[in-house]
Amino acid sequence: MRRDSPPLFECYDLGDGNSLQTGSLPAALRLDAMQFETLWRIRPSEFDKIMIHGRLVPTPRWQQAYGEDYHYSGQVNEALPTPAILEPLIAWAKGQIDDQLNAILVNWYDGKLSHYIGRHRDNRANMLPGAAIVTISFGEDRIFRLRPWPSSRQGGVMDFPARDGTVFVMPFETNLAWTHEVPASKKQRGRRISVTLRAFK
Question: Considering the entire predicted model, what is its pTM?
Answer without folding.
Answer: 0.94
